[in-house]
Write a structure and sequence with these properties.
This protein is 31% helix and 34% strand. It is an alpha+beta fold. The protein has two domains: 3-84 and 225-251, 2-Layer Sandwich (Phosphorylase Kinase, domain 1); 87-206, 2-Layer Sandwich (D-amino Acid Aminotransferase, Chain A, domain 1). Strands 8, 9, 10, 11, 12, 13 and 14 form a seven-stranded antiparallel beta sheet that branches. Strands 1-2-3-7-6 form a five-stranded antiparallel beta sheet. Strands 4-5 form a two-stranded antiparallel ribbon. It is globular and about 45 Å long.
């Protein structure tokens, strides 16, 4: 498949056109950002790990009937994905209260929620991705009630699956962000899961020690982000303990591939 012009560049990924109008290439960057891009740096190898982890999770979600944009992983940094019209809403799913919600509402950090809490944010970096309500969504036609009802059902299914997936490898799924897009399937408009699911978009804590294995290591200057992401990949079976593959080797392989292009 031939890579065409750049269509879009976000904080963590670049989207390229292909010779198929329905498919695009998604490239995972090494850029790390936080606090609406106020804090940023480059962490070599991060994009490679996010690519592999997101592919693994989205492939597993496909197997339980959650339609998503992933077609296949191309290489260490790129995936072929379906071209979708992104709904301009970030869906935040919380199982444990931490981060911004504790500051907004004065909730004790680490409070386990009785049931999953879904919050909505308008996807707009210039406005700081403000928190919105369903009434805002419907008033400004960002999505229909039918679409939101379907998305909420998918979110609860995704959450149940991911809690079990991570619990099985000794990780607590604290919260995560999802995005969805519109696409025509068999001539009908449908909403499917899009973007990525990785330690960049999830809060993941070790089940015993509560060590953070996600982007909070960057947000809070904890260091060791690549070892943490690598640990998640190893526990999910993407990288094997007995293999000679390490985060350093992954980064070298990625760099070689980029030089060849």
């Amino acid at each position: 498949m031939k890579k065409g012009k750049k269509l879009y560049e976000g904080k963590a990924k670049i989207i390229y056109a292909t010779n198929d109008k329905n498919l695009v290439i998604q490239y995972f960057k090494d850029d790390a950002t936080a606090f609406n891009n106020q804090k940023k740096t480059t962490i070599e190898g991060k994009g490679v790990l996010n690519n592999r982890i997101s592919e693994h999770i989205l492939s597993n979600l496909s197997q339980i009937g959650i339609k998503n944009h992933l077609v296949k992983r191309l290489n260490m940094r790129e995936q072929i994905i379906k071209l979708v019209e992104i709904i301009p809403i970030e869906f935040i799913v919380r199982n444990v209260a931490t981060g911004s919600i504790t500051k907004r509402l004065g909730i004790e950090d680490g409070t386990v929620l009785k049931e999953p809490l879904i919050e909505y944010c308008l996807k707009d970096d210039e406005l700081g991705d403000p928190l919105i309500s369903e009434e805002h969504i419907f008033a400004f036609d960002w999505a229909s009630k039918t679409e939101i009802d379907k998305v909420k059902k998918m979110i609860l299914r995704i959450n149940d699956f991911m809690i079990g997936l991570f619990r099985g490898v000794g990780i607590k799924l604290i919260d995560f962000k999802l995005e969805f897009g519109r696409i025509k399937i068999d001539g009908k408009n449908e909403v499917i899961l899009a973007d990525e699911i990785s330690p960049d978009t999830c809060r993941l804590w070790d089940s015993i020690t509560e060590k953070k294995l996600d982007k909070d290591r960057f947000r809070k200057d904890l260091g060791d982000l690549i070892p943490a992401y690598t640990e998640v990949a190893k526990r999910l079976g993407i990288l094997h303990e007995q293999s000679n593959v390490s985060a350093v080797n992954i980064t070298k392989l990625s760099s070689v591939k980029r030089k060849k292009k």
